[in-house]
Amino acid sequence: MNERRFDPLVRAMALTVFVFLCAQTAFAHPQKGEAVGFLTGFRHPISGLDHVLAMVAVGLWGAQLGAPAIWVLPVAFPMVMAFGGMLGLMGVPLPGTEYGIAISAILLGAAVMFEVRPRLWVAATLVGVFAIFHGHAHGTELPPGQSALLYSMGFVIATGCLHALGIGIGTVHLWSWGQKLLRVAGGLVAVGGAFFMWKAFA
Amino acid sequence: MIRTSPSRLPLYAFVVLAFVMCALPADAHLNSTGMGPFYDGLMHFLMSPDDIVPVLALALLAGLRGASYGRRALFTLPVAWLLGGLAGLSAMAAKPHPFIAAAWFLLLGGLLAADAKISLRVTTALAALLGVYHGYLNGVGMGQFETASVAILGLVFAIFVLIALAAAFVVHLRANWARIAVRVAGSWIAASGLLMLGWAVRTR
Questions:
Q1: Which of the pair, B16 or B122, is modelled with greater confidence?
Q2: Is the minimum CB–CB distance between B202 and chain A shorter than 8 Å?
Q3: What is the pLDDT at residue A3?
Q4: Which of A55, A97, A170, B183 is deepest in the core (most CB within 10 A)?
Q5: Residue of B15, B29, B195, B197 for testing the chain A interface, max A β-carbons within 10 Å
Q6: CB contact under 8 A, A22 and B19
Q7: Global pTM?
Q8: Could you tell me what percent of chain B has a pLDDT over 90?
Q9: CA distance B68 to chain A (A)
């Protein structure tokens, strides 16, 4: 007598259904939403290419300029960006935010492309002014109901990581071929900024 | 006649169903480690970023200043936290103000980022204030539990270990880039404080 054998696919499906039925531990009150706050905060700066281009460009420029700009610029940017974010959260209006963001990518990219070497305070001020636009845009877009602390930390850490990425790429400046490559990268950032400027006008 | 072995599906189904039916405890309110109130308090600190970040910032700041600063913070902060916690146990209620939490982030993160040359007295005062304030809030929150004082001991132990590790790590840093990396961490903490301030006064 033939016994009916279950198809492997049916077995797998049955097991999967049982696994999905498994109830998870309830994390009530303190934990709920906090991890989501950190992750959503971390994702926010890297979710927009216009922000990514400018923040990586800050790192590239810092690496190109060398010490102390290599660490002053990436420290100045998150601090001033957070100030801009605070203004955005408080509802303080800032006109032309999208244009400011696009201009930041254009000018920072151009600075890397032409290897502009201004005084430190000039570079820090320029980066700081651009950071306000980026921060304000983030601040006005922040979703309600998140954990303020974890969201803020995720947000700032992601921004810092983007700068670190820029600095990491910028270390190719130590070699002559790397210097040319870095200038090309600056040009690409500027082109990206021009694209976002065109989109802002369109 | 073809002989086939009987299907094992019912056995698999039974095993999986047994796991599915296994009820897990709900981790509501206080994190229960299952190892007693001491470890519950310890875990409470490790799972509370609003407590752990200012403590870490103070430890890094003290470490940057030198070994004597680190030693002072190592004993002042846990003792102040313990005293604040014990005082909070008998208090009725206290609500942590978001402005004050943001201010601690801004102050300690800013001092760390600037590598501020603060005196030993100021470091001691900061450690005492931070400990009393946060300890008091912890004490109020834990006051509803019978074993709260033991939980606070566990919490204070975690603070002691964190300060010892973080400050000792930074005291030994000699490379310039490593000290700058610590200051960058301070700037991130201060930037988080600024954003938290924005959240606190959010108008939308």
A1: B122
A2: yes
A3: 54
A4: A55
A5: B195
A6: yes
A7: 0.76
A8: 40
A9: 28
B2 pLDDT above the threshold of 70: no
Residue A9 within any structural domain of the chain: no
Residue B175 sits at the chain A interface (C-beta within 8 Å): no
The answer to whether A2 contacts B2, with C-beta atoms less than 8 Å apart, is yes
Q: Give me the domain span that covers residue A93.
A: 33-201
| CA gap B65, B120 in Å, rounded | 9
Interchain contact A22–B (C-beta under 8 A): yes
How do the domains of chain B map onto residue ranges? 35-100+115-173
Residue at A197 is within a domain: yes
A103-147: pLDDT as tens digits: 999 999 999 999 888 888 998 898 889 889 888 888 887 766 667
> Contacts of residue A82 in chain B, CB cutoff 8 Å?
190-195, 198
Q: Is residue A49 part of a domain?
A: yes
Asked if A202 has any chain B CB less than 8 Å from its own CB, the reply is: no
> Within 13 Å, how many C-alpha atoms sit on residue A149's CB side?
22
Residues 51-80 of B with CB under 8 A from A: 53
- Structural domain count, chain A: 1
Euclidean distance between CA atoms B142 and B130, whole angstroms: 18
Once rounded to an integer, what is the mean pLDDT over residues B159-173?
92
pLDDT of A30 > 50? The answer is no
User: Is A24 strand, coil or helix?
Assistant: coil
B65-102 burial, b for 16+ CB within 10 Å, e for fewer?
Answer: beeebbbbbbebbbbbbbbbbbebbeeeeeeeebeebb
